[in-house]
Amino acid sequence: MKKYILMAFALVAALASGCVSDEEFLTEKVKDRVTILNAFETSDQILNTIYTGYYDMSELYFPNGSGMGVRFRKTAGTDIFDGKYQLGAGEHFSNIKGAWSTDKSLPKDFWDKFYKIISYSNLAISQIDNVEWDSEAKKARVNAEALFLRGVCYLRLAELYGGVPLVLEYSEVPNFGYVRATRVETYNTAIDDLKAAYDRLPSTLEQSESGRATKWAAAFFLSEAYLGLGVEEGDNKTDFDTSARYAQEVLTNRPLMTERFGVRLPGAKGENFGIPNEDLDGTVLTDLFVSANVILPENTEAIWVMESAPDYGSYSLYRGRNFNNYGLSPSLKSRKWKSEYVEPGAAAGPWATVSAKYGGKTYPAINGGTGWAQYCPTSWACYYNWEGANNNYTDYDMRYEEDITVRTKFLCTDPNHSLYEQKCGWEETDSTDPNRATTIFPIFYKETPLDAWDYDMQQPTQAGPYVTFYRHQYAARSAEAALLLAEAKFRGGDTTGAIQALNIVRNRAKAKPFTTISIDIILDERARELLYEEFRWATFLRMKPSEWKHRIYDYGMYSARADAPSGWEYRRWPDFTGEIEWNLWPIPQTYIDLNTESDGMPQNPGWKE
Fold this sequence. Notes:
Blueprint: H1 2-11, H2 22-26, H3 36-39, H4 43-58, H5 70-73, E1 81-83, H6 105-127, H7 136-161, H8 183-200, H9 215-232, H10 237-253, E2 271-272, E3 275-276, H11 284-287, H12 291-294, E4 302-306, H13 324-328, E5 375-377, H14 379-382, E6 406-407, E7 410-411, E8 423-424, H15 436-439, E9 443-444, E10 473-477, H16 478-491, H17 495-508, H18 519-529, H19 536-541, H20 545-555, H21 589-594
Antiparallel strand pairs: 1-5, 2-3, 4-10, 6-9, 7-8
Helix pairs in contact: 1-4, 4-6, 4-7, 6-7, 7-8, 7-9, 8-9, 9-10, 9-16, 10-16, 16-17, 16-18
């Protein structure tokens, strides 16, 4: 899809030539003025409008050029990770009192993003009958994609903000009198769009179409939408049963990958930057996150993907270029040895200097490349969720296998220290360091390369060579469909079916199966399976407040209580003693203030205008 995305920005209005002859293309067609009524002349222009919607959606899955952006704010402040302390108290999203208000950028950025994509969908739908199409099938598919994108946006708006204005037609006339629909009406609008898309979208894609929506992507989001609707309607079993039906359809048609596949299999020929393509230590879970494997037709687990592609650079330097290691790798260079490990002639810490063998760089690939720790996983997400009772006393979990899917200790790179080329971590470094929790934490293969094979050595940055890499991202994956199924079954009263669905992902990970289930167990498992993938705030806010608030009190990086069960002796900020007074994100105050012709945009409870 990437070649079309580039076209979309240049050709979203009336600039695309479409499939016409040279003579026709060169014939000047003068218009008194360009309006929506005469701007679209070819079906390709409609299609490019849809591609622009996809393109905008992709910003939710890739960091910006400095390794930050809205991609991380989908989860920051939950029980998973948060902005590091050095960025200031206002950047702690689990600092419920300091980082959230009706005029902060976070709720406005997402609101703007979703309504922008809705506008592209409405524009395409408004013009779809005004141009000629090669076939009715192509026309129906493009219309379905517009409805799919709009449906996903209204689902997210319902989850995050509750009831919102329903804009279902394109208009060039400013409206200052919007009225919020109810949350149930917003969920049902999303469902109507997604069901219409489900009926018309293809079941499979050509490889060149990677990134476009399919029937199973629509089914995936329908399952999620019915879960939210069921909770909002007071635990409506019919909604939960419908959610389960759609999730099961996804799993039946797009089952989880259970065997190794793709470009790094044993026996694979060739190499990348001196490292063999053959990965003898890999597993199906590492193969899933090799970028080339994400978009392979044989990868049945990929329901909807966002492509990261080097040629995006022709439009934007950073589009699709993953700097996740800026955000999600520890900043190791400032770590210092514990007093008993300090040695004369050695550097102050294990990674304060780097030998020539490892490139003489501050950030060698062996330790995850350049890491700025802009967003730091909570201790619960890094450690406690994988241990003991939290993980059903499992002895082995393929998702947390040292030096395969996770790295918890890092190679000492100081040649003048006796521990040179040995693994060091929490135990060897200064436990009194006030930045401890934000400068050292595990890296996970799904987001940060564990060796140089993944990096693009043709695009080094000023921070060094191990920064730039291209990795396609999953927007929907069959493993999450299994967890949606587990939740739908549980909420609908089918405990046995819920446990069986939950264990689909645990069995693949070789983890000990659960024999009991609860919402907390489901949320724990989502964190293990979908770490860094999930839109955690959307998951939380579609649930009951009692099901998610306590997790921030227990595990939040800033807001956890003094008696939280997750090792918060490493924090340097005060214990949180307040309460989360809201159940939904705020409506951006900007739009309430602009809505001068109606009082139909009240603020959500718990927020001050």
